[in-house]
Amino acid sequence: MARLSSIKIHLNINIMRERIRNKFQELFATEGSVYASPGRINLIGEHTDYNGGFVFPGAIDKGMIAEIKPNGLDKVRAFSVDLNDYAEFGLKEEDAPKASWARYIFGVCREIIKRGGDVKGFDTVFAGDVPLGAGMSSSAALESTYAFALNDLYNLNIDKFELAKIGQSTEHNYCGVNCGIMDQFASVFGAKGSLIRLDCRSLEYKYFPFNPVGYKLVLLDSVVKHELASSAYNKRRQSCENAAAAIRRNHPEVEFLRDATMDMLDEVKNDISAEDYMRAEYVIGEVQRVLDVCDALEKGDYETVGQKMYETHYGMSKQYEVSCEELDYLNDIAKKCGVTGSRVMGGGFGGCTINLVKEEKYDAFIKEAFKSYTEKFGHEPKLYEVVISDGARKLA
Ligand code: GLA
Description:
Blueprint: H1 2-28, E1 33-42, E2 54-55, E3 57-70, E4 75-80, E5 85-90, H2 100-114, E6 122-128, H3 138-153, H4 160-175, H5 182-189, E7 194-199, E8 205-209, E9 215-221, H6 233-250, H7 262-267, H8 274-298, H9 302-319, H10 325-336, E10 341-344, E11 352-358, H11 359-377, E12 382-385, E13 393-394
Parallel strand pairs: 4-6
Antiparallel strand pairs: 1-3, 1-13, 2-7, 3-6, 4-5, 7-8, 9-11, 9-12, 10-11
Helix pairs in contact: 2-3, 2-4, 3-4, 3-5, 4-5, 6-8, 8-9, 10-11
């Protein structure tokens, strides 16, 4: 199985590489260097990153790949193979391109320049196989690809954390999403076969080899697209900050919701909106669940891991309200089929559920999920088996 998967990864990358090579030749009549960065999964710890809490992501075998070569000009000439779209833009703040895909590349250049990095014009062609808007961080994969590549090509000596932060600032300043650090961190720091527990306040991290013998980790994509910028993501973050600020008045040591307890939250129940209270209640529970899952993993106790995943789904659906009918339905099917753990993954508002399934229950679960989901919503979900893979890298 592992061998088959790695052959598949190889094939995918090779096909994409061939496609971008051909296009790069056609457009620029030369050859550049090739870089790749992955999307991510997250076992548990959603919406905890911007609350200073813990997350538990891993990089996956799907991502973005780009060919790049400095062009001696003062502009970037970029082509997206998947969107069949071309953009040209300068590197000054006022040169921001209109196309949203190009803003990610522009944003990364700007963020490097703002940090004193000497980025000049380049030509680039890129493609990806991480589904867009499915909660697997296609945008972080794109940002990390360019942050990593420009750092390497221009010998900027930017450390890996700063590369991740460059991606995050791109989201904040050029794409309208006030995201945390999880996605970019996972895309840069990913390591084959390991999940990573990250403390999003101290930025301490630990690799956990993840090989749940007898289980499979599978994503079911509802195919409901999420759009974090236009969604309520930023509003959720605001609610958390409101709650933390109210708690801080009584407990000055509380920097983030990560530092708060339910008792502290209850003290300010009447000072904050019912909505902000509910959001904070979810976050305080979720921060603890990540730690519980780490303990359970160290004991090989996947039943507890799974139970925590269900608790997270409940919280994301009923307290944080970032699920949707389709994802709740997939979660219900998982429960009915005896799946060990299942929950909505990533920012929410659409995208995938992540499921930890015993091997002997896998076939029946997938069959039932496809049948019931298609009957109810008129279209199939998509299935991705997860292979935990390496982070940002140079391919050639
Ligand atoms: C998105 C954001 C992350 C994180 C998750 C939810 O993926 O980019 O920073 O907040 O949502 O856990």
